Amino acid sequence: MDSFRTRIAPCLVLAVLLVALGRAQEPAGPSSATSSTNSTSKPTKKATPAADKVVLKVGDVQLTREEFESGLSDIEPQGGDAEEKGLPDKDRRKLGDDYASVLMLSQQAVASHLDSSPEVSHQLAVARMQVLSDAEFASLMRQADPTAEEIAKYYSTHLSDFDQVLVRRLFIWKRKDNSKDAPVLSVEAARARADRIRQEYTAGATEKKLAEDLRKSGDGMFDVEPLVFPLGELSPHMEKVAFSLKPGEWGEVEDTPAALLLIQLVKRERRQLGEVSSIIEKELQAQKMQALLGDLKKKAGIWMDEQYFGTAVAPVPDAQRRASNPPSELRKSAKKGENKSDEQQK
User: Which range among 12-26, 40-54, 153-167 shows the weakest confidence by mean pLDDT?
Assistant: First the structure.
């Protein structure tokens, strides 16, 4: 609560000052809530809805509960949930005091003509520009929303993009605890150890037993449960190995001074439209947004001094970005399953 109170004043100053400036141009008069009450005959008078009830007055400005909580939620997402979350009265009172103080100061700033000062005028102009920019961006985002038909079409024309593999990883440590000392196992010894494990597995040893034996010996790690890697999550080399295997086959992925890494393909499958529709929606929306923004930039006639800003940087293709991933990406992915494997082995 205290951290919120320290943030609310600077955040609200511009917002409330903008409101105060607007209301300063309006003729003084009763609020809609008051006029509505006065225009209603006493016999038919109804209780004022809680959201429309005036809860704060500062000079001629008065706020309903809905306006007050909306102002808070614009700054702090949880701020407007005070009623629903059962915020204690003393804490709600603090928020009210802070809001009233900011509103009071903003009114005084207008009365003192501070809104005409260069500094405040600049801040108000920047705030207005940002609000309008955000509003237009939100409007473009709504225009860029793909239809269900567009999502389905994208899926049907990019089926292979949604393939994924379920793999088990077999690590044979050549060094203990990432030590910089000489390897405990040589390349030949590590390969021989991996071969024995695969033979035991083929002979019927369970994944749990193999994983437990490796854990006890400290020689490596074996996944009891397979891990899922959608297409595009692995570096090109590892992805090539994983997606070229047939179910049950093993492939060597890495052989470094620290470890030998092999994977076994358990299953290759394709995610269904329902699983990836949100992903496709974001991709299509991003494409449409790029097109809309690009069109707006052309129409706006944007020019930038390249001597000052430098030349434009071409976007890096997705495939090239993936190619730049470090070759030990799958090795780092060990963290993804180590905790899970440890829990299953206990």
Answer: 12-26
Question: How far is residue 295's CA from residue 299's CA, in Å, rounded to a whole number?
Answer: 6
- How far apart CA 140 and CA 275 sit, in angstroms, is 26
Q: Using the 8-state DSSP alphabet, how is residue 180 labeled? A: S
CATH number of this structure's domain 162-272+326-345: 3.10.50.40
- Mean pLDDT, the chain, integer: 79
The answer to whether 219 and 193 are in contact (CB under 8 A) is: yes
Q: Kindly report the CA angle at 157 between 156 and 158, in degrees rounded to 5?
A: 95
Evaluate if residue 34 carries a pLDDT over 60: no
- The residue written with tokens 């706020």 in the block is 63
Q: What's the pLDDT score for residue 279?
A: 95
Instruction: Return the amino acid letter for 211.
Output: A
Instruction: Indicate the domain borders of the chain.
Output: 1-27+50-120, 162-272+326-345
- Measured distance CA(88)–CA(227) in Å, rounded: 47
How far is Cα 254 from Cα 328, in angstroms, rounded to an integer?
A: 8
Tell me, yes or no, if the pTM score tops 0.90: no
